[in-house]
Amino acid sequence: MSTTIFHSATTRFQTDRGWVKGKHSFNFGPYFESSRQAFGSLIIFNEDTVIPGAGFATHPHANMEIISIPLSGSIQHKDDTGKEATIKTGEIQIMSAGTGIRHSESNPSHTNELRFLQIWITPNKAGVPPRYQQIALNDQPNRFNQVVSPNPKDEGLWIQQDAWLHTGQFDKDVAATYHLKKEGNGIYIFVISGEISVKDQLLQYGDALSITETHEIRITAQKTSQVLIIEVPLK
């Protein structure tokens, strides 16, 4: 039997370090709540806002699939493999940390804030070589567009996990159905902007639904909306 849990935007734990403000959907740093430990392989879902010229100093990661999606502004990325890149709004980045990588993320603008989503997914294989990718989103309107998958030959970026990410830009009153890719996976739906309904539940900016034991899910845009769907293994 399908289980659906509504996560109101107002329940996200918020931090303010002056140069960065964070909204955390799952346990992060000092925040711990037993009901917010993870959703299967999805363990971190943060929305961060960074002031002009500031950023996260160089720090390490290992054995983690880290996905960044700018919502406004750009991310300046540098890592110890020698990779330097700018990820702009309308693009998506994956950093597969593998055996270990050190990187920094900053807001290169002197005038505009950076707002971005950062998503951590545990890999299904540890100790792989670190890897970096980024692409421009090629969102076709009023449909779900695949941006991450487990298959290097498939559309979008790929990660070391049986997980998929789709984005969608929907006009008012448009409905769309998402079909799960793998039996036993669950889906996490997040509203980036606008307002949608799912199973008679209304979701607005920052709201989310976690859904298990289902083969598909149908959304209807109540306003012009942008949606992110993350499908992940639950075990």
Sequence-ordered SSE layout with sheet pairings:
Layout: E1 3-7, E2 13-16, E3 20-24, E4 42-50, E5 55-61, E6 65-72, E7 74-79, E8 84-88, E9 91-96, E10 101-106, E11 114-121, E12 131-136, E13 145-149, E14 157-158, E15 164-170, E16 175-179, E17 186-193, E18 195-198, E19 201-204, E20 208-212, E21 216-221, E22 225-232
Parallel strand pairs: 13-14
Antiparallel strand pairs: 1-20, 2-3, 3-4, 4-11, 5-10, 6-9, 6-11, 7-8, 7-10, 9-12, 13-15, 15-22, 16-21, 17-20, 17-22, 18-19, 18-21
Describe this structure in words.
The protein is mainly beta. It is 0% helix and 55% strand. It has one domain: Jelly Rolls, CATH 2.60.120.
Short description:
The protein is mostly beta strands and 235 residues long. It is 0% helix and 55% strand.
Low-pLDDT segments: none
The CATH superfamily is: Jelly Rolls
- Overall spatial form: globular
Radius of gyration: 17 Å
CATH topology: Jelly Rolls
Count of DSSP H/I helices: 0
Structural class: mainly beta
Specify the helix fraction band: under 10%
Order of helices and strands: EEEEEEEEEEEEEEEEEEEEEE
- Spatial sequence of strands, sheet with the most strands: 1-20-17-22-15-13-14
Strand content: over 45%
Mean pLDDT: 95
Largest sheet report: 7 strands, mixed
What is the correct CATH architecture? Answer: Sandwich
The termini sit apart by 17 Å
Work out the count of structural domains: 1
Number of strands: 22
CATH class, named: Mainly Beta
